[in-house]
Amino acid sequence: MAHRTKPNSREKRAAKFPLTLHKPTGQWRKRIRGKDFYFGTDQDAALAEWLRVKEDRLAGRTPKPFDGDMCSLMTLCNHFLTNAKSKRDGGEITSRTFDDYHTSCERILKHIGKSAAVEELRPDDLMKLRRALAKTMNPTSLGNEVGRVRVILRFAFENGLTDKPVRFGDFKRPAKRVLRREKAKAGPKLFEAATIQKLLDGADVQMKAMILLAINCGFGNADCGQLPAAALDLDSGWIDFPRPKTGIGRRCPLWTETVEALKAALSARKSSTDTLVFRTKYGRSWFVDSARCALSAEFRKLCQAVGVYEPGKGFYACRHTFQTIGDEHGDYLATRSIMGHADNTISGTYRERIKDERLRAVVDHVREWLFGCLATKS
């Protein structure tokens, strides 16, 4: 018997319109798991109501009553992202932060529903979202995502989109003990001196200079990628460069090895008038404010090439290393100043400077740790 390949007229109508007409009553209906749901006689109104309750009905849930004055999650996300875009364009938040918020909105709409009313969200709706997130995220990532979702949902009440705040219930970040266990399981983000030496020996001109900046001055990806040549005083061996993330000023003495590496990197630039110290082979900045960073990728290649690669331990681990070894000197305020960390204490508000001698003592201690161990070994 020949198989039918063309859809019949009923199938064509179903593909175009999701509801069928119940002729005895004149109402539009939808059959789900053998049960009929009716949506009235007006075709357009029936379709709108079906789209509103579709996700709940298909999931076997009883839809929340319709309230035309309620704020849907889709409306909330649109308002929130519009506001976040203005902050991004004004430099108040980074592009990566905006991208993270955008992804969080997509996850909210996917797991709870576009038409769900913010006012009617229940703690179990949020726990459903949390369970879905926990399947694909580690505790740290889950905590960050929960924090972003709470920011988005609080935006509704704080900006007059709803008349009452959302009840979050147990929609919280993982407990600190869980985060501590996860950190212990991952191991310390610390490079030993011998490992850094291997990286320096295998690095090209630019990467060597960036690694030395990371372990000499606690520089991260953004610091190296956005470092202007004007911030360097190689004659005196100092660098003055506010931390891009926080805008906090930093001043750090440079080792002889770092000065020589920076001179070599500057000489290797295609243009001597370039404002940035480092450029990729394509002429772009090494740092891009997104999850994909050219510096991170190149550093990973180097780690693999010299046989020291460990998952989860990237370029930023050099900054962790500087903080750890620098603190061992005992002058925590000097180390904090070099790192560019905010000091929100009253003393931090009144403290106007830290003597250069204290800064130099910290970096000299790190240098002795890095290069002195090889001298002892040899």
Describe the structure in your own words.
- With 378 residues, the chain is mainly α.
- It folds into three domains: 18-58, no CATH class; 73-186, DNA polymerase, domain 1, CATH 1.10.150; 193-377, Orthogonal Bundle (hpI Integrase, Chain A).
- 53% of the residues lie in helices and 6% in strands.
- It has a three-stranded antiparallel sheet, covered by helices on one side. It has a three-stranded antiparallel sheet with strand order 4-5-6.
- A hairpin with a 4-residue loop joins strand 1 (20-22) and strand 2.
- Helix 8 (193-202) packs antiparallel against helix 9 (205-217), helix 8 packs across helix 16 and helix 9 (205-217) packs parallel to helix 13 (317-327).
- The longest helix has 22 residues, at 356-377.
- The N and C termini lie far apart (86 Å).
Q: Tell me the overall shape.
A: elongated
Instruction: Provide the number of structural domains.
Output: 3
CATH class of the largest domain: Mainly Alpha
Can you tell me the CATH architecture of the largest domain?
A: Orthogonal Bundle
CATH topology (level 3) name of the largest domain: hpI Integrase, Chain A
Number of strands: 6
Which range best describes the helical content: under 10%, 10-25%, 25-40%, 40-55%, 55-70% or over 70%?
A: 40-55%
CATH superfamily of the largest domain: Intergrase catalytic core
Placed side by side, the strands forming the largest sheet appear as 1-2-3
Which band does the percent of strand residues land in?
5-15%
Radius of gyration: 29 Å
Order of secondary-structure elements = HEEEHHHHHHHHHEEEHHHHHH
Q: Please identify the structural class as seen in this structure.
A: mainly alpha
Q: How many strands, which pairing sense, and closed or not: the largest β-sheet?
A: 3 strands, antiparallel
